[in-house]
Design goal:
By secondary structure, the chain is α/β, with parallel strands linked by helices. The chain has 14 helices and 20 strands. The N terminus is likely disordered. The protein binds 5'-deoxyadenosine and iron/sulfur cluster (SF4).
Length: 476
């Protein structure tokens, strides 16, 4: 892990001043350091999406700022922060199971402080569950108030209080310290929350309403990153296409992207996620003319059936989706398009599912993330009557994957013989003899020639599979 410590802006705006709590936390870590002659350790575990990865980098940044060192070993930690996800039941179960395993660490080290953060604890029933059944958890920090971490830690260590406030704030906290995981790839949140209320989705309930960061703050952060040598920057938001609508001086996502593209340097810009109902031709035009914006687009389809899309409250149909898809392929030949698809949504008939398969054949995505529908407490879809049996969901999921593997394999095969610019990620985790990297379109490439992480190389693509390309480095 690289200990880069950047500030996302000049100082906290739009949020409560944490300075007094930061002082209390620093005094606490100082006393721990004095008692044992070494810095206290903090372990941060992250579940879920890239927004959560970005939030964890802020939690780790704040922890370092108040005197902790970051460790990879939970058993050595004085402070454990578990950043949770609520998007599907499986993610919540895994987080709860891990928190359960930390009980024995608390028994061994009674001064250990455990905090549970993120989307799961923005739900009242989960807060109650943690409060009741996990007495060794000291505080929870719902996603929209992560900047309050020093406050909750201070209240825990000075008053011995457990802090379980399911607070939600519609604020944008600037100026939080960030401890980035990578020295070449960075995530930059440009907005928080979601207004869309897709009928299956918990996000609007746990991340609150849309609020955008000021364009100046985003531009300043990206400029700082480029100057610090970051070469792959991903702009994050639940629906980046509605960026800026809530600002006093509205600024579209397309115009933000155009301004960011003006920053000089050798870097590539990605963004996610887009909503098909809001993706504009103007945005595609900006991408086509840009110097730095990657020729890749993640455009969640969710379903290929107009009837199901309507029940999902998605506000587009097949025709509208294909209209924007065809436009981007026309304007940006070779653009890689990826998508999200949910199978087994309540009421999905065999014919609806066939519509999804036919959309996959027509859209020919480079890759999809596919999900089995998971009912989320409090969402309209969870209360729909015609839930689909698990066996039917599983069978459809397998059919979806089989078809998409074929399509992904064919899409990747078209790249065999081409030369791709690849950002190296260093040695492969599974094979010491192999290096990995990603193309500008975010496709994984394996090659044998040693190349340090963070370097761009030109790779001749020799062979393709559904999930990866294999090649030979021709120039560094
Ligand atoms: N069940 C299954 N998948 C879901 N997603 C969101 N909510 C659910 C749910 N309840 C998927 C959507 C979204 C992606 C991030 O997660 O496809 O685009
Ligand atoms: Fe969830 Fe829909 Fe918002 Fe995406 S756009 S976060 S799927 S509610």
């Amino acid at each position: 892990m690289v200990d880069k410590h950047l500030r996302s802006s000049d100082g906290p705006t739009g949020a409560v001043d944490m300075t007094p709590y930061i002082s209390v936390c620093r005094a606490h870590t100082e006393s721990l350091r004095a008692a044992r002659g070494a810095a206290p350790q903090c372990f941060v575990l992250t579940f879920g999406c890239q927004q959560n990865v970005a939030d964890s980098e802020k939690l780790a940044g704040m922890a370092v700022d108040i005197g902790y060192e970051i460790t990879d070993a939970p058993e050595q930690a004085d402070l454990i922060l578990v950043n949770t996800c609520a998007i599907r039941e499986h993610a919540e179960k895994r987080a709860l199971s891990i928190v359960g395993q930390y009980k024995h660490l608390k028994e061994k080290n009674p001064s250990l402080v455990i905090g549970v953060c993120g989307c799961m604890v923005a739900q009242e029933h989960r807060c109650e569950q943690l409060k009741r059944s996990y007495p060794y958890v000291s505080f929870v920090i719902p996603t929209s108030v992560i900047y309050r971490f020093p406050q909750y830690l201070a209240e825990t260590v000075t008053k011995g209080k457990r802090v379980f406030r399911a607070e939600e704030e519609h604020t944008v906290a600037e100026g939080l310290p960030i401890r980035r995981e990578s020295s070449y790839r960075a995530f930059v949140s440009i907005m928080y929350g979601c207004n869309n209320f897709c009928s299956y989705c918990i996000v609007p309930y746990v991340r609150g309403r849309e609020r955008s960061r000021a364009p100046e703050d985003v531009i300043r952060e990206v400029k700082t990153l480029v100057q610090a040598g970051y070469s792959d920057i991903t702009l994050l938001g639940q629906n980046v296409n509605s960026y800026g609508k809530d600002l006093e001086e509205p600024c579209s996502f397309a115009s933000l992207l155009r301004r960011l593209d003006g920053i000089e340097g050798d870097y590539i810009l990605h963004f996610m996620t887009s909503h098909p109902k809001d993706a504009t031709r103007e945005l595609i035009d900006v991408m086509a003319q840009s110097r730095h914006v990657a020729h890749s687009f993640h455009l969640p389809l969710q379903s290929g059936s107009d009837r199901i899309l309507s029940r999902m409250n998605r506000h587009y149909d097949r025709a509208k989706y294909l209209d924007i898809l065809d436009y981007m392929r026309e304007q940006i030949p070779g653009i890689a398009v990826t998508s999200d698809v949910i199978v087994g949504f309540p009421g999905e008939s065999e014919a609806d599912f066939e519509d999804t398969l036919s959309m996959l054949r027509r859209a020919r995505f480079d890759m999809i993330y596919s999900f089995i529908y998971s009912p989320r407490k409090g969402t309209p879809a969870a209360a729909m009557e015609d839930q689909i049996p698990r066996e039917v969901q599983n069978a459809r999921f397998d059919r979806l994957l089989a078809l998409q593997n074929e399509i992904s394999g064919e899409a990747n095969a078209l790249l065999v013989g081409s030369v791709q610019r690849v950002l190296s990620e260093g040695k492969s985790k599974n094979d010491a003899e192999t290096y990995t990297g990603r193309t500008a379109q975010n496709k994984i490439v394996f090659f044998k020639e040693p190349c340090p992480a963070g370097e761009w190389v030109s790779v001749h693509i020799d062979r393709a599979e559904a999930f990866a390309l294999h090649g030979t480095v021709i120039t560094k």
